[in-house]
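Input record, target 12 of the design panel.
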């Protein structure tokens, strides 16, 4: 992976210039016309959520079931890279998968999601906030959204390591289904939709979680929060992940390890020093059991009579949010999974992803819930009175021993998550920028730096426009709709090509070695 691509003639300029123009244009609109822009995005989001919510829900369930079918069928025995051994150990591989996901959003929502919908009538109708708030948090970050990543990781891994394709793009994965049409306008449209969706997802991530970073830093160092501090933090994060991504996959692995150790340190601090260890563990086990018992119901409930709107506001948003992140993360998982069977990619990916996200939501979410239930901090009441979510999170952390140190560790860990995730995103989106990129080669540093900077522009525009949480969610939901259609096509394309591969090699020993689990 040390070979670098330096020839600018190999770049796909269209896929670099058009997204740049779109991002700059959106920033100008959000900055100059914040109210009008917000109103338009909210209207479109309402139409998709109200009229097409069934599409997101059925897609999520179908993808999850498809991953299980693939893993335990003949497709699961296919080894990516034929007889090659895995590039990374199980720990290294699992670490990179978890830390390449959703950046600091994992920590942000772990600490706050249970409280943001704690007073929803829907939860009260089901049986109460204490049981269903953490249950829904695990469901929203559980098997279905991870299924979006893993089914595409299997398809992209097959495309790169078995088919040997040099065009590492969304459109190329559709070649078995669409043929040479992917080389024309249709392929360009698919890739442009993919890049825009990724930019929308990253902008939402930065815009949602950065205020918690700002509040945390200001709390520790006794500063007054401001838009200027928001922007400075974004720039600092961009510098960190740009420096890391310029070192290639070795730098990404190093940052991923550091991120994991910081995360585990924060988990230890909260789990064992909060005084709520037993409650956290027991509530976590109870929530997993409740989610498992009601999984099918949760995955198909669309609230047709709109008694609460909870599904449209939350579950559909999360499925859309994960879809826009499907552009880069599955590619990254596919690249680092060389030498592993498809069964291992799927089951191992579920193990690594769910272990990380469930640990985060169980520990940090139930820590806050424990303080709410025991009356130490009325987080739900504070949010109802208009306090910001970041400030509510900090109020919870102030109940910890050495609270300032815990908040500082939270901030550092979030920055590390940002750096790791955007390392992988920048690397993958840089691969998109080339007409051809052979396996084992990395994009040029200037290309990586270009995308690293572009990733930070739209979030700054959204922050300056002071977009609400609902409006930020709207951006993701709108961008996700065409991606959902493309995902369906990619899955059919994978089945077609993988079936052809198995048939062609049926008389040979087609990678029937046991999975490396």
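The sequence produced for target 12 reads:
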């Amino acid at each position: 992976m040390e070979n670098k691509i330096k020839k600018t003639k190999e770049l796909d300029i269209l896929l670099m210039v058009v997204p740049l123009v779109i991002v700059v244009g959106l920033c100008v609109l959000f900055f100059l016309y914040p109210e009008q822009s917000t109103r338009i995005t909210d209207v479109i989001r309402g139409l998709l959520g109200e009229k097409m919510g069934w599409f997101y829900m059925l897609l999520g369930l179908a993808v999850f079931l498809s991953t299980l079918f693939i893993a335990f069928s003949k497709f699961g025995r296919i080894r990516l890279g034929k007889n090659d051994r895995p590039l990374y150990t199980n720990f290294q591989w699992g670490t990179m998968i978890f830390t390449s996901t959703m950046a600091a959003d994992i920590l942000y929502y772990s600490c706050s999601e249970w409280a943001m919908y704690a007073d929803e009538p829907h939860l009260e109708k089901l049986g109460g906030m204490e049981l269903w708030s953490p249950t829904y948090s695990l469901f929203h970050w559980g098997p279905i959204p991870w299924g979006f990543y893993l089914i595409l990781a299997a398809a992209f891994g097959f495309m790169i390591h078995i088919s040997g394709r040099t065009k590492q793009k969304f459109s190329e994965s559709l070649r078995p289904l669409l043929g040479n049409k992917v080389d024309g306008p249709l392929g360009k449209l698919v890739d442009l939709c993919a890049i825009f969706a990724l930019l929308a997802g990253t902008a939402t991530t930065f815009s949602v979680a950065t205020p918690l970073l700002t509040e945390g830093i200001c709390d520790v160092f006794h500063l007054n929060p401001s838009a200027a501090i928001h922007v400075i933090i974004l720039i600092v994060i961009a510098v960190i992940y740009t420096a890391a991504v310029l070192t290639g996959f070795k730098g990404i692995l190093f940052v991923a390890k550091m991120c994991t150790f910081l995360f585990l340190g924060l988990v230890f601090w909260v789990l064992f020093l909060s005084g709520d260890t037993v409650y956290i563990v027991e509530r976590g086990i109870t929530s997993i059991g409740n989610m498992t018992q009601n999984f099918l119901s949760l995955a198909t409930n669309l609230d047709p009579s709109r008694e609460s709107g909870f599904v449209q506001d939350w579950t559909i948003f999360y499925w859309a949010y994960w879809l826009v992140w499907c552009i880069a993360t599955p590619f990254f998982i596919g690249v680092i999974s060389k030498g592993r069977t498809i069964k291992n990619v799927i089951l191992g990916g579920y193990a690594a992803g769910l272990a990380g996200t469930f640990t985060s939501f169980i520990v940090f979410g139930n820590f806050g819930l424990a303080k709410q239930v025991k009356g130490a901090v009325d987080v739900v009441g504070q949010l109802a009175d208009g306090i910001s979510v970041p400030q509510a999170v900090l109020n919870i952390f102030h109940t910890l021993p050495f609270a300032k140190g815990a908040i500082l560790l939270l901030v550092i860990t979030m920055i590390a998550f940002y750096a790791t995730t955007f390392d992988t995103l920048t690397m993958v989106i840089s691969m998109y920028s080339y007409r051809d990129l052979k396996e084992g080669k990395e994009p040029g540093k200037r290309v990586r730096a270009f995308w690293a900077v572009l990733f930070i522009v739209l979030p700054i525009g959204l922050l300056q426009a002071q977009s609400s949480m609902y409006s930020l969610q709207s951006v993701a939901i709108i961008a996700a709709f065409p991606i959902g259609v493309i995902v369906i096509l990619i899955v059919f394309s994978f089945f077609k090509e993988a079936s052809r591969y198995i048939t062609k090699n049926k008389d040979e020993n087609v990678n029937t070695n046991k999975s490396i689990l």
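The chain has 22 helices and no strands.
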